[in-house]
Every structure is written in C-alpha cells, then in structure tokens.
Amino acid sequence: MTVRVRFAPSPTGFLHIGGARTALYNWLFARKNGGAFVLRIEDTDAERSTDESTAGILDGMKWMGIDWDEGPFYQSEYLQEHKDAAQELLRLGAAYRCFCTKEELDQQRAEARANKVAFKYNRKCLALSAEESQARADRGDPYVIRFRVPDNRQETVSFDDRVFGHIEVGIKEIGDFVIVRSNGLPLYNLANVVDDHRDRITHVMRGADGLANTPKQVLIYEALGWETPVFAHMALTLDPSKAKISKRRHGEVVTVEFYQEHGFLPWAFCNFMALLGWSSGDDQEIFLNREEMIDRFSLDHVSKANSVFNYRKNDPKFITDPKALAVNAAHLRQLPIDELLPYVKDWFVRQGLWKDDWDGADRQWFASTVDLIRSRYHTLEDFTELGRAYFFDEYPIVPKAAKNIRKDPVLEQGFKRLSQAYAALDGFSLENVESTLRVLSDDLGIKAGLLINGVRAAVTGQTVGPSLFEVLLTLGKERVISRLEKAAVMVSAG
C-alpha cells in the first residue's frame, strides 16, 4: 500500500501552531514511508474563508519547508461530488430528508435537557414514505439530509487508532446526524469522507478534537462501500492552565507568522513543533537536519497525553515557550556555519541592515564574527539587537553595562591608558591584547575583572558575551580604541 496523507486546513484565519504540527506530522510520515503528502484547502465556509488566510497558510508551510506533492486542492471545487454522494446515500436508504422546523428541534432538545439525557433526533421524518418525502421536496418545503444510523449492524462502531488504540462507540449513542444543510451545502463529515476517498488517502492524521467525528465518518464509509482509512489522532496542545491554545486567548504567539517575524530558524521551529507530542524514543531532542527526524519519526512515539505550550502572556523574560527558544538556540549554536550564514544574512536584509561588503571583501570577517557570537543567542533577532555593536558603530548600552562602565572612578584612567597602550601596539594579537590589559590593571592597583567588565560594557554595550579578548580582535584595533575613549568620557561625565 502506498501511503497517502493530507493536511486539510480551513482558511478562516492564521496558520496556527496546532495546525502546523498536524501538517508536520503528516509530512514526516509521508516522507518516512515514501508516500505522498496532499494539501487540501477546506474552503466551503464561504462567509469566513478568505484569500488572505489561504495565502498565509501556504506561506507558513513554505517557510517551514513543508512541501506538498499534490495540491493545493480546494474543497469548494468538488461541491457537486459531495452532493452526488448525498444523493447516493438517499438512494441506498442510508440517508433521508428531514423537514422538522427549528421550533420542533428546539422542543426535542428541551425535552432531552429536562430528562437529563443527550439530545438525539427522534427520527420523526424517517417515518415519511419515499413518495411523501419527494413530494414535499418538490413543492419547496425546506429540509436537511440526515444520515440514517443503521439499526441492523453490530452494537458498536469501532476503529483502531494508531495513537489511542482500539476505540468503540455504542451505535445507540449516535443520533441521525445532518450531512446536508437546508441550503443544499454538505457538512464537514460528508465532504471530508468524499474528499479523502477521492484523494485516495490511506492515513487520516489529525488532532484529537476530530475523534468525535470519526465514528460518524466510519459509518459513511461503510454505507458507500468505500474502504476506511487508518486513523491517527494527535493529542491536543494546551497552555499551562490546560486551556486550548487560540489566537483570541494567547495572541500572535500561537501563529507561525510570529516565529517568522521574531527570527526563528524554520527547521528549528519544526523541531520544537515535533516535540509537542512526539519523542524519538530516547533522550534526543535536537535534530539539526530533516533527514534525521524523518528517519526517527514513528506514530508509535506520538503521545496520547496532551502537550503543554508553556507560554505565559506578558512574561517579561520569555516571548514564547522557553523550550522553543532553547531549541532554536541549540540550532544557532550547532548548525555548520555555512548553513547558518544565509539565515543571518536574510535577517539583516529584512531589517534593512545588510552591507554588501559582508558578501565581498569582509565575507570572512562576517562569518567569523557570526561564529564567535552565536553561542549565547536564541534567535536571529539577537544578531541585530544584542550583537549590534559587532556590526555597527551605533549601538545601545544596556543599563547593567552602563553601570559597569561607571562602577569605579579609576576606570576613567583605565579606559584612557588602555586605549593609548593599544594604539602603541605594533600588532593587535590575542596574546598582546590580553597581556596589555592585565599589566595595566596591575599598574592601576585594581583587579583585572573590574577592567575586563568595564571594557566589555564599553565596546559591546552588553555585560556578557564571548571571551573579551576574542571580542576585541573581532572588533579591530581602531574600533576598540575609539570606544574606550568614549567610555572614559562617560566616566568623567558621571
């Protein structure tokens, strides 16, 4: 059997990280099994579906690197197939027209509440003869089409889910459900089955919120005589308070676009998404390349338990789940520098900060600088924010760094004399840059750490970073001297 899976989002909003994870799992499964990944846009909700949302979904998937083999197909283009299937179910006696009014149905629901039982349609219209049903339809009486849950089958509807195992639902628990609205438009359960059958989908992999629909869909497959696909439902992703994540509740942080705009590496984002409900079977969490994760991916290691997106709105320390930042940071640190550089360049270009010399005469300097500073960074944004002093002469000095510059009045002389000492050096090497600073600190009668911390703050505007002496070499003699002179003025100015 050739594996065929699909991702079928509704274009009624942004690409949500829950949808992104579903797309990723389907894509991984298809690639692992040499199968096809089909993209289908379920756009039959004409009032809420927008071209902008469709474009956002496609752009988000492209950014993540999730390519599709077929599609995108648009569900609205197959409306006639859905209607034909409904007519076939009517012909087979597996569905019937229901002419009950809203008032009649509301009365049934009220009675169910009063009796403290779940509402199930009372099948009033099932008693209509075929002739009477057709006559009422011909004279324009409004109706919906209901699927007739069979009376002559086993007592349960069952299926084997690749994640949750064997599932059975009592046949009496499923009421005759609507498959076509009174306006003639088929509903999700019917359209979904027809589309998956037409697209030859072998495995339906979707969120666990789809589990409630699966028994109904199994019944439709059976009624039409079609082979039922394998189902695999993914547990939900919740916030720390166990609420389902949503843009309304959590804001932009649950959209793929947020991660694009905040400097995440596309595959690092996918790596984090994969960990929201899947494990490799051992302790490995960082997968630097797609092939490695594809090779390790298995439905056997998809969790039944809901995952937690550990984001707390308005947290001043973390813009998103700390794990997402940690995974992205690991990719920034561990990627071969030649693979990382194009992403860093693209980020500088997007910010309007790119200098063409960094791709020309200063290419090696740019690469070595990125390699030096990347170890403490979490996103690409850090290169243009925390790392601005490495690339530009105008850079912010954070409050803690400013405090280190003014920490002791002796630093005014320290900065002046160090700048003079560096200016007098014939060579600007790692050895003489360090030895010059340490000799000066002894002459001033201060600990080397005081001067080191002050110099770091002066030349980078930060309090942490790589080895100071490597930083000084990267910045270069002229820049370092100029910045030390400015720092001496800061101390004297108080």
Can you offer a commentary on this structure?
The protein has a three-stranded parallel beta sheet. It has helices spanning 17-32, 51-64, 79-92, 102-114, 130-138, 188-198, 214-224, 247-250, 256-261, 266-275, 290-296, 322-334, 337-350, 363-373, 381-384, 388-391, 399-405, 410-424, 430-444, 448-460, 468-475, 477-493, and strands at residues 4-7, 36-41, 70-74, 95-98, 144-147, 156-161, 165-170, 178-180, 203-207, 230-234, 237-238, 307-308. It has 22 helices and twelve strands. It is mainly alpha-helical. The model has no long low-confidence stretch (mean pLDDT 96). The relative contact order is 0.08. The protein folds into four domains: 4-74 and 190-238, Rossmann fold, CATH 3.40.50.620; 82-180, Alpha-Beta Complex (Glutamyl-tRNA Synthetase, domain 3), CATH 3.90.800; 247-391, Glutamyl-tRNA Synthetase, domain 2 (Orthogonal Bundle), CATH 1.10.1160.10; 399-493, Arc Repressor Mutant, subunit A (Orthogonal Bundle).
